Structure formats: structure tokens, C-alpha cells
Amino acid sequence: MKEHRSLVASIVMATTGFSVxxxxxxxxxxxxxxxxxxxxxxxxxFNPNGPAWETxxxxxxxxxxxxxGDNWDxxxxxxxxxxxxxxxxxTVVLLSNTGDYIxxxxxxxxxVETYTFNLRDNEVVWTCHKTxxxxxxxxxxADCG
Length: 145
Prior knowledge:
Distance between the termini: 20 Å
Number of helices: 1
Order of helices and strands: HEEEEEEEEEE
Number of strands: 10
């Protein structure tokens, strides 16, 4: 078990840059780039021609579900950098765990994001509800390994 946790810590560190906060984490799922569709609300600065539906995604992104005891976190990386929801100040809650499907939510005053990891078919489907800085509602899917 100690070797498994060391391997997980190495994977988490290599893929996201996290080393200390998740050193004892159990890697539950590691997913790649997300593709989806978003509804972008009118915004004078970011979307003056909105509202509009648009293809959206995170092409080179990673989503990593980790568990440390009863605490869950989702770490992710993209072109901007790497971080986790807990690091961002979000409350991260396990919403459901059937064994094949794990649903986790991340909540702040600016966003609500929910992730359903389908461990049987190695995928994650997630939703994003943001009020700032770019207000949108979107749904995405990514393959997991």
C-alpha cells in the first residue's frame, strides 16, 4: 500500500505539480482533454455578442480525482497551469458513490462544478456553472485511463 501511495504521489506531482498537499492521496481516476458545449451568457467585456451556444473544451487538459481518507479533491491542469479545487478555496463534496460511478461537486460563490466519473467505461462527464469571470453553463466529457 505504501508503494501504491508513493506511485500515486509521483503521478500527481508529475501531472499537476502537486506534491505536498496530496502526498498521501489515492489516485481514483486520471482523465485527459475535455470536449463539450457551453452556453455563454451576455457579458459586456467577455461576450458582448452573446448569449450564444459554443463548442467548448480543454484540449491538453487533465482531470485527476484523488481521495485522502474521507476528503476528495479534483486536480486539473491546462495551458494556464495546474491546481485543485481545494487549493482554489472550493468546498469539495462526494455526492454519490455506487462503485462504478462516483459523483463529486466543487462549490464556491463563483462556480458550481459536478463530475461524474464512470469507472466502468473510463470516462468523466462534468458540468460547469460559472457566474464569473466568464458567465456560462457547460457540459463536457473526457476519457480516463
